[in-house]
Design brief:
binds cobalt (II) ion, three-stranded mixed β-sheet, 3 strands, globular
Length: 485
């Protein structure tokens, strides 16, 4: 009886979360510009109600439950919720409201600042946000440094010194690596009106398995995937009319997130049984589809077919080998989301070092643009022409997501391990992909990743799925198998 009461309570809280997600999706897509202040109040009020549910009210429900008599999934669920409760109850309600209001406002100003290439429009909000995040780290507690307390939100138990070792070993191995020969022809550089691009993208991701009866795709400044609820997952993309790859690969990335959300268990909603595991596993799914599958030669053959079929006005003769070379061309660039699979992680190293220094109060917000440009020059050897193409490019900081970036690299490394394992399991892997048969992959992911919910941690899920603990060499091996430096 008390367990049912807990599940009922969690489901109610989950529905409130859905409402909040819907408001945030609306803000990023269709909300009229001048509504942003009201919206930030609405988000704040909801954040307060949700906080009450997750702390004061949850305490009462949890008090009636004896963990020691529970078994199986019930035991795992309650154990997780108890851990969540410990963490949530360290945060005062007033603080949760304040943070929610501020992130809603900061995103509005970040968007404006990025469009106008004006860092000063955003910096006062960023400064306030960093102060709040430092306060949050102090509430949560930490051993070595405040930044560790924030990392824990995205990958439980991850410490900055561990990630530093992982990313530095990557930097050492791949620093200043470039593809050998120059590119001759990029078939994606072609003028296609935005509407036709979106129409193509919608047909294409349906082929990948995106279910439009349970989701949709719209436009936004920064592409994202927002799981409103179990049967309503919304992704966004953005378009450049003279570069199809820009839109397409971001769409495939978000589709990977959406497939994960849409493949979760549909029972015990609002509990860790039907939730995603972590941001690392989440990004492993998006990066898996975007890169491991999406940039494989077999997929290029499938893509060439679909481009000719769905966009016959623009594509006649296409050479999959040429597409493969374009998609796997390694060279330093300004924008993280458009970076190749190798230099991508140098972008992550830059953000990780800067946000760690911000939260640990080693650098100041006003120094960010120049420190950013310096680091990009160090790591990537290129000169940033404007803040819009530099420090302002990502939405994360404006949304208060400090500690998120490492999960992109970890997720990519996990994805490479899953990919190599899948290829060894299925001898016809490439020919199935070439023919657009992704069902066997969906089934494997459903069984080994999606259905595990949040009952295990990221490493446990990876190890159960691939039979091996996390190993960075998988990524190195994967890159060596496809890219010639
Ligand atoms: Co992502």
């Amino acid at each position: 009886m008390s367990l049912q009461k807990l599940y009922y309570h969690l489901e109610n809280t989950y529905h409130l979360h859905s409402i909040s997600s819907l408001l945030s999706w609306d803000q990023e897509t269709y909300m009229p510009e001048k509504a942003y202040e009201e919206r930030s109040k609405q988000m704040g009020i909801l954040a307060g109600i949700i906080h009450q549910k997750k702390t004061t009210e949850l305490r009462e429900v949890l008090n009636d439950i004896d963990l020691s008599v529970l078994k199986g999934n019930d035991f795992l669920i309650v154990k997780r919720i108890q851990q969540d409760f410990e963490k949530w109850s360290k945060i005062p309600e007033k603080f949760a409201v304040q943070l929610s209001e501020l992130t809603s406002q900061a995103q509005f100003y970040w968007d404006k600042a990025k469009k106008n290439n004006d860092f000063d429009l955003f910096s006062p909000y960023l400064e306030k946000l960093i102060n709040l995040k430092i306060q949050e780290a102090n509430y949560l507690g930490y051993e070595d440094c405040p930044y560790d307390a924030l990392l824990d939100d995205y990958e439980k138990g991850l410490k900055s010194k561990d990630f530093e070792n992982i990313i530095q070993s990557f930097v050492k191995e791949f620093y200043q690596k470039k593809s050998k020969n120059p590119l001759k022809n990029n078939p994606f550089f072609i003028n296609i009106p935005a509407l036709e691009q979106i129409e193509f993208a919608n047909r294409f991701i349906k082929d990948l398995g995106f279910d439009f009866t349970r989701g949709r795709q719209d436009l936004s400044s920064h592409p994202f995937s927002n799981a409103i609820s179990i049967h309503d997952v919304r992704i966004t993309t953005r378009v450049k009319e003279n570069d199809l790859q820009y839109m397409l690969y971001s769409t495939i990335h978000e589709t990977g997130h959406a497939l994960y959300e849409l493949g979760l268990n549909t029972e015990l909603i609002g509990t860790p049984y039907s939730e995603t595991c972590s941001l690392t596993i989440h990004e492993s799914q998006s990066r898996f589809w975007e890169n491991n599958i999406g940039r494989s030669l077999a997929f290029c053959k499938f893509l060439a077919q679909k481009l000719k079929e769905y966009l016959p006005k623009y594509f006649h003769e296409l050479n999959p080998d040429e597409i493969f070379l374009v998609l796997n061309y390694v060279q330093p660039s300004f924008i993280r989301t458009e970076a190749d699979e190798v230099t991508y992680h140098l972008h992550i190293a830059i953000r990780f070092e800067l946000e760690k220094a911000l939260i640990n109060q080693e650098i100041k917000v006003n120094d960010l643009p120049h420190l950013w440009n310096e680091k990009v020059h160090d790591y990537l050897g290129i000169t940033i022409p404007s803040d819009s193409l530099g420090v302002l490019q990502d939405v994360h900081w404006s949304a208060g997501l400090f500690g998120y970036f490492p999960t992109y690299s970890l997720g990519s490394f996990y994805a490479a391990q899953m990919y190599l394992h899948l290829k060894s399991l299925f001898p016809n892997f490439d020919s199935e992909i070439e023919n657009g048969n992704f069902e066997f992959i969906h089934q494997w992911l459903k069984k080994n990743i999606y259905s595990k919910g949040r009952l295990y941690n990221s490493n446990e899920i990876l190890e159960q799925a691939t039979g091996k603990p996390y190993n960075t060499n998988a990524f190195k091996q994967y890159i060596d198998s496809k890219i010639v430096f």
